[in-house]
Specification:
Blueprint: E1 4-9, H1 13-28, E2 32-33, E3 42-47, H2 52-59, H3 62-70, E4 75-80, H4 84-90, E5 96-97, H5 106-112, E6 139-143, E7 145-146, H6 157-161, E8 165-166, H7 169-181, E9 186-190, H8 213-221, E10 228-232, H9 241-249, E11 256-258, H10 266-271, H11 278-291, E12 296-303, H12 310-323, E13 327-332, H13 340-344, H14 351-373, E14 380-389, E15 392-396, E16 402-405, E17 417-426, E18 429-434
Parallel strand pairs: 1-2, 1-3, 3-4, 4-5, 6-9, 9-10, 11-12, 12-13, 16-18
Antiparallel strand pairs: 7-8, 14-15, 14-17, 15-16, 17-18
Bound molecules: 5'-deoxyadenosine and iron/sulfur cluster (SF4).
Iron/sulfur cluster (SF4) binds next to helix 6.
C-alpha cells in the first residue's frame, strides 16, 4: 500500500508550526505528502480547543473517515490542543491520540498501534529538535516557548498545553540562522506569551540563565541577511519598555504588534483574569506609538463574555476606536468546558447579541483601518510577495496588510521583496504598482 499523509492544522500559527513538525516525522517514516485528504492514508489532525466551532469541524469529518478506517484504508491521528472533556469523546474515533510533546515517540506509537511494523528508536529526538518541513519557501514559524501560565478564565490553552516552558535561545538562534541561509524572509517567533520568554528559567536570586525577550529579539535582529522578524503573541502585562526600544531600533523587526486586549472594560478584564485595566492597556498602546514610529497595532478581542453589559461592550468599542487598529481578531465568546469561566460564570449573552457586537466591532475596525492607511497612499512600500492569483500578484507589507499589484504571471516573484507604490485602498487591502 502507498504511504501518504495529510496534515490538517486547525486554529493558530502554533498549530501550523506543530503540523510542520508532524510532517517531518511522517516523512522520516517514508510517508509522502498529499494535498487532498481523500488521497491520504494517514490524516493527522492538529486540533484547536479555543472555540467549540473548531472542535465541531473535527466531528463533522467522522462519517467520511469511518468507512475508510473500517476498510483499513485510513489511519487517523489526533494531537494539538484537546480539552480533557473532548478527549474522552474524540479518542474512540481516532486510531491514535498523542500529546504534541510526545511527537518524537510517534514512530513508536504507530508501531504499537500496528500502523508501522518496525521502529528505529535511534530516530527519536527532542520535540524542539525536530527540524520542520516548512510549507512555505519564505515564511517560517519558530516556536520560542510552549504552554501558558496565565489562566485567563475563558481560555483552554493552559489546560491543553500545560505550563510555560522556554526553548533554549541557542536552539532558536540556530534555527533562525538556518532559515535565513535557506532564503526565508518572514520569521515569526511563536509562543502563547512571548514576552515572558526566559522567566521560567529564573534562578532563586532573581537572575535568569536565559536571555530576556528583548535580548532574544535583538540577537535575531542583528543576524546578517535580508529578512523580517515578528512575534505572536505578547501579553500586555509583561510588555516591557526594553521590547519597545528594541523594535524601534532594528529595521528587521517589523513595526507591527498584535497586542491582545480581549476587552476594553476593566470589570470584564478582571472577570477574565487579565491582570491589567483598560487605562493600563491604553497607556501601553500610547507608549508603543510614541516609541515606535509608523507602528501598526492589531488585537484579539472577545465579545459577549459572561455577563458583558451594553456599557462594558461600549468600552470595548471605544477602546478599538481610541487605539485605531489595522487588524483585529474578534471572537464571540465560546464556553470551554473545564475553564474557570465555565464553572463560575454564566454564558448569558445570547448568540444574536454576540453576533451583533461582533458586527459592530468589525465596522469599527474597517473604519480605523481606512483612516490609518490614508496617509500611506502615494508612498512606496516594501512588499514580501506571496503568490499570483487571478491575474495579479499578492503580497504583504511589514504591517501584514495585503497589497496587490500587476506583473507578468511568470515573473517569479514569490518570496521576494518588491517596492510597490500604494495607489488605492479598500478594507484590508491596497492596490498598487511596482516601482
Ligand atoms: N471564546 C472565544 N474566544 C477565545 N479566545 C480564547 N479563548 C476563547 C473563548 N473561550 C480568543 C482570544 C485569544 C485568541 C487566540 O482566541 O481572543 O487571544
Ligand atoms: Fe489563553 Fe490567556 Fe494564556 Fe493567551 S494568555 S493562551 S488567552 S490563558
Amino acid at each position: 500500500m502507498s504511504k501518504t499523509y495529510y496534515v490538517w492544522p486547525l486554529g493558530c500559527q502554533t498549530n501550523k508550526s506543530d503540523g510542520e513538525r508532524v510532517a517531518t516525522v511522517l516523512e522520516k517514516l517514508g510517508y509522502e505528502r498529499v494535498e487532498d485528504e481523500h488521497d491520504a492514508n494517514v490524516i493527522a489532525v492538529i486540533a484547536c480547543a479555543i472555540r467549540q466551532s473548531a472542535v465541531d469541524r473535527i466531528y463533522g469529518k467522522f462519517r467520511a473517515w469511518e468507512q475508510r478506517q473500517q476498510a483499513g484504508d485510513l489511519t487517523t491521528l489526533l494531537t494539538g490542543c484537546v480539552l480533557p472533556h473532548d478527549k474522552q469523546k474524540l479518542t474512540p474515533k481516532f486510531d491514535l491520540v498523542f500529546d504534541i510533546e510526545e511527537l518524537p515517540k510517534l514512530p513508536l506509537l504507530l508501531a504499537q498501534t500496528n500502523v508501522e511494523e518496525t521502529v528505529n528508536l535511534r530516530d527519536q529526538m527532542a520535540y524542539f529538535d525536530i527540524q520542520p518541513i516548512h510549507n512555505s519557501k519564505f515564511r517560517a514559524w519558530v516556536p520560542i516557548a510552549k504552554g501558558c501560565d496565565k489562566f485567563c478564565t475563558y481560555c483552554a490553552v493552559p489546560y491543553t498545553r500545560g505550563r510555560e516552558r522556554s526553548r533554549p535561545s541557542a536552539d532558536i538562534i540556530q534555527e533562525v540562522k538556518e532559515l535565513i541561509a535557506k532564503g526565508y524572509k518572514d520569521i515569526h517567533l511563536l509562543g502563547q506569551n512571548v514576552n515572558s520568554y526566559g522567566m521560567d528559567k529564573r534562578r532563586a536570586d532573581g537572575t535568569s540563565e536565559e536571555l530576556t525577550f528583548a535580548q532574544l529579539l535583538e540577537t535575531v535582529a542583528t543576524l546578517p541577511g535580508d529578512f523580517w522578524v515578528r512575534f505572536h503573541a505578547p501579553h500586555p502585562r509583561d510588555f516591557t519598555a526594553d521590547v519597545i526600544e528594541v523594535i524601534a531600533k532594528y529595521p528587521k523587526l517589523c513595526k507591527q504588534i498584535n497586542l491582545p486586549a480581549q476587552s476594553g472594560s476593566s470589570t470584564i478584564l478582571r472577570r477574565m483574569n487579565r491582570p491589567y485595566t483598560r487605562e493600563q492597556y491604553l497607556k501601553l498602546t500610547d507608549d508603543i506609538k510614541a516609541g515606535i514610529p509608523n507602528v501598526s497595532l492589531s488585537t484579539d478581542i472577545i465579545v459577549g463574555f459572561c455577563g458583558e453589559t451594553e456599557e462594558e461592550f461600549a468600552d470595548s468599542k471605544s477602546l478599538m476606536e481610541y487605539v485605531g487598529y489595522d487588524m483585529a481578531f474578534i471572537a464571540q465568546y465560546s464556553v470551554r468546558p473545564g475553564t474557570v469561566a465555565a464553572r463560575r460564570f454564566e454564558d448569558n449573552v445570547s448568540h444574536e447579541v454576540k453576533k451583533e457586537r461582533f458586527r459592530e466591532l468589525t465596522d469599527v475596525l474597517e473604519q480605523t483601518f481606512m483612516v490609518n492607511q490614508q496617509p500611506r497612499l502615494g508612498t512606496v512600500d516594501t512588499i514580501l510577495v506571496e503568490k499570483y492569483a487571478k491575474d495579479h500578484w499578492l503580497g504583504r507589507n511589514q504591517h501584514q496588510v495585503t497589497v496587490e499589484f500587476p506583473a507578468p504571471a511568470d515573473a517569479n516573484l514569490v518570496g521576494t521583496f518588491q517596492q510597490v507604490k500604494l495607489e488605492e485602498v479598500e478594507p484590508f487591502r491596497f492596490k498598487g504598482n511596482l516601482k
